[in-house]
Amino acid sequence: MTDLDIDTLRTLARVAGLDLAEDELERLLPLVRFARRAAAELDELGLDESEPAVHFRML
Amino acid sequence: VSDLVWMSMTELARRVAAKEVSPVEVARAHLDRIEAVDGRLRAFLTVTDEAAMTQARAAEARVMAGGTLGPLHGVPVALKDLYATKGVKTTGGSRILADWVPDADATVVARLADAGAVCLGKLNMHEFAYGPEGLNPHYGAPWNPWDARTHRICGGSSSGSGAAVAMGLCAGALGSDTGGSIRIPASLCGITGIKPTYGRVSRAGVLPLSWSLDHVGPMCRTAADCALMLGAIAGYDPRDPSTSVLPVPEYGAALTGDITGVKVGVLRPFFLESTGSESRHAVEQALAVLAGLGASIQEARLDSARFAAGASTAVLAPEAYAYHEAWLRTRRAEYGADVRERLSLGAFLSAADYLRGQRARLRIKAEVDAALARLDVLVCATTPIAATPLGESEVSVDGETVPVRQGLIRFTRVFNLAGHPAASVPCGFTPAGLPVGLQIVGRPFDEATVLRVADAYQRATGWGARRPPLAGVGAPAA
After folding, report:
1. Does the model's pTM come out above 0.90?
2. Looking at beta carbons, which residues of chain B come within 8 Å of A14?
3. Which of A9, A35, A47 sits opposite B360 (nearest CB)?
4. Torsion of Cα atoms, B130 then B159 then B82 then B124, to 10°
5. CB contact, 8 Å: A43 with chain B?
């Protein structure tokens, strides 16, 4: 997985409609990188056969 | 200080029903206590003194008229300020909702009223429940009652609930728990709290942080009081489709004091092995007490716990962002800096990341279920560290630097992902006099066994009877 850089983060923020100052982007970058990496590592659990724990209940 | 403020909910309810104490007298004693100490404690955001006295007088009239009494008749409670209260400001600890006055009660608020409880007001919290320290830049962070000299965190996000119950400002409180927000402040404030099974208690009318991880539960001074309060609020609610139709047992009946033969699994890898030695010592002593009571102590492990941080963030951050998205665009400056940053994180995780988290949590749940197939409960420290001074972001634990925020939620959030019931009970103190909590985890919808073990332990030890250093004084020193 490629790490996000600050320019990509700025673009994503703009697309999301978030007006983030440069210092906010800089503080967020390591958090976003960590969260994305940690999410990717969940594949180590072998999730191929697992459905997500979200349910649409008809009754 | 009136003895009434230290009386358990169970005892207050009994004495009110027996006409030994008046609900008016009980409410007055607690309101006087709030007036005396909360200026600096900052546990309450709103004190509904007039409404409380009106409720108390009505409760007294009902007692005197010989009417049917609910299980909490005349017992004073308070609510974390994310429960909608009809006609009473509900801020979520935020500036954004500083003036929001709901036009209906949350289901659990209505159920407490139906049970006869007298509501004293709304409690401080980490802004929008997004932080385990219990800080609040808008209203001030509550003072941990266990250190009169240093302003320490109460733990969060239900920090006001922890401080208020520990200081005798209310007999019990409602907290909410998305990653540990009932159990962490219970541990750091030396009280008892239980996060019930997901679906056991309605979330209708509760400001959400993360719909699929949020749990509602009681925070009290004893497990018996938690049983009483949980019984009053639990059960199916058509306003919350995630609630279960399973019947609510009589939790009090489970509190026999007998845990002979109960199989207790000690979580060492990841949990006890990364607990600071002072807290670990208290937990080891608690295990000896449980063994002395006849419990069978066995080893247990949850290897998937190391994935809890990734899974929790992958689920929580997008759900929280989804709820706050519009405000983050239009009222961004009104958030405190820490919560604004955490909420923004959710904008940068993908749908695939979110679903990866939701898939992982079923694997984590399966491992907890498997452990509890051979054991009745799992135990570990609630937190690896005790209450830290305000503003400290890192703490040294046995020579290792631990980030406070990540440390606080390390042992709790795995059970939000799994959804199992989990309680924290006081199990001792560090040499500095700060409380340590023991986390007890049970099978889905088996809160009764969790509370039975917690209650038996409390009967044998009496840690919960110790009063914090601030309890005898008017207010913390400036």
Report:
1. yes
2. none
3. A47
4. -120
5. yes
Q: Residue B389 is encoded by which pair of tokens?
A: 């001074």
Residues in B touching A51 (Cβ below 8 Å): 359, 362
Give the Cα-Cα-Cα angle B464, B465, B469 (nearest 5 degrees): 95
* Strand B172-177 versus strand B76-80 pairing type: parallel
By the CB < 8 Å criterion, does A38 face chain B?
yes
Please give the single-letter amino acid code of residue A44: E
CA–CA separation, B438 vs B440, rounded Å? 6
**Which chain A residue has its CA at the smallest distance from B366's CA?**
A50
Annotation says B2 is catalytic:
no
ipTM field: 0.95
Tally of CB atoms within 10 A around B78: 32
Q: List Cβ neighbours of B104 (8 Å cut-off, separation of 6 or more).
A: B84, B86, B205
Answer whether B164's CB lies under 8 Å from B145's CB: no
Q: In a structure prediction context, what are the per-residue pLDDT tens digits for chain B, which is 478 residues long?
A: 679 999 999 999 999 999 999 999 999 999 999 999 999 899 999 999 999 999 999 999 999 999 899 999 999 999 999 999 999 999 999 999 999 999 999 999 999 999 999 999 999 999 999 999 999 999 999 999 999 999 999 999 999 999 999 999 999 999 999 999 999 999 999 999 999 999 999 999 999 999 999 999 999 999 999 999 999 999 999 999 999 999 999 999 999 999 999 999 999 999 999 999 999 999 999 999 999 999 999 999 999 999 999 999 999 999 999 999 999 999 999 999 999 999 999 999 999 999 999 999 999 999 999 999 999 999 999 999 999 999 999 999 889 999 999 999 999 999 999 999 999 999 999 999 999 999 999 999 999 999 999 999 999 998 988 999 887 655 444 4
